[in-house]
Known about the structure:
2 copies of one chain form a homodimer.
Chain A: H1 4-18, H2 27-34, H3 38-50, E1 54-57, E2 63-66, H4 75-82, H5 110-128, H6 131-135
Antiparallel strand pairs in A: 1-2
Helix pairs in contact in A: 1-2, 1-3, 2-3, 4-5
Chain A binds a DNA duplex through residues 3-5, 24, 26-28, 37, 39-40, 42-43, 45-46, 49, 56-64.
Amino acid sequence: MLSKKTKYGIKALTFLARQNSRKPVQIATISKSENISVKFLESILLTLKKNGILGSKKGSGGGYYLLKDPKDVPMTLVMRVLEGPIAMVPCVSLNYYEKCDDCPDEGTCAVHRLMIQIRDNSLKVFRNTTLADLAN
Amino acid sequence: MLSKKTKYGIKALTFLARQNSRKPVQIATISKSENISVKFLESILLTLKKNGILGSKKGSGGGYYLLKDPKDVPMTLVMRVLEGPIAMVPCVSLNYYEKCDDCPDEGTCAVHRLMIQIRDNSLKVFRNTTLADLAN
DNA sequence: TAGTATCCTACTAAATCGATAGGATAATTA
DNA sequence: TAATTATCCTATCGATTTAGTAGGATACTA
C-alpha cells in the first residue's frame, strides 16, 4: 500500500507544478485544495524541502515552491524521498541493498527473481514520469 | 515492502514445486530448508490451503502439497492471497476497487494516473510468471 | 490406542502510520 | 520596532499492522 504521506506529497507537488507562477504557496492553500490535514501536510512539505525538491520562504507572503522545473523532477526521486526504496525487498534494491539473512543464495531464490522484475518495471515507470507529466 | 508472510509463502510454494513427487511435505521440513519459524509458516500454509492453492493431509505421513501443476499457478493468485491487492491504492485496484474520499476527480488525480501504470506493469509480471517459472 | 501432524483461536511485543500539539524561528508589514 | 504571518521543529499519541508464540482440538495412521 502507498502511504498517505506519499499520496499527499505527490498531490501537493502536482498542485505546485500546476501553478502558473513560481511564487510561494502557503500550506493552508494546498491543504484546502487537496483535502489534506494542515499539520500532516506541513511535515510532508518539510521533508520535501529537506530533500531538495521544494524551497520555502517564511513570513507573510511565504510558503513553498518548486526548486526545479517540473519536467526535471523524476518520480523516482519523489518516491524515494517519501516512500523509501522502490524495491519491495532490500535484496533487490539498487540504492538500499541489503542481504536477506534467511536466504543462503540469491541466485536460486524465487522471491529475489520475481521481485527484480517488479523493481525493473516500476523503475521504468517512475524514471519515465516527471512531475510535469502528472501535472498535465 | 513485501511482508514476510508473502516472502515465506512464495519460498514454501517454490520448495513444494521443486519436489519430485507430489507427496505431502511436513511443515517442519519446509521450515528447516527455508529457515522459517515453524509456527509462522504453519499459519501461512493454512491460508494457502484455505484459498485453494495447497492441499493437506493430517497425521503420520501427512503434510502439505500443491493442488495444481506449478505452471498453472500464476503469481497474481499467490500475491492476492498472501499480500492482498496488487494495486498500491484502492482507487486503481481491479479486484478491490474503492473510491478515495479525499479525491474529487480520478481523471485529474496525479496519484491515480501514476499508480495505474505501476499496477499495469506489476500485473503483467505477476500474470506472466507461474510457480513453475520460479521453481526453474 | 498411541503417535503424528495439521487445524484453530487467542494473545503479544514491537514497529509503523496518520496524525495532533505547541512552541521556536524567521520574514514581512505597519 | 512591534505585530503579524508562516514555516520550522520536537514530542506525543491512538490505532493498526506485523511477525510471531502458545496451547489445545482434530483427524489420520500404524
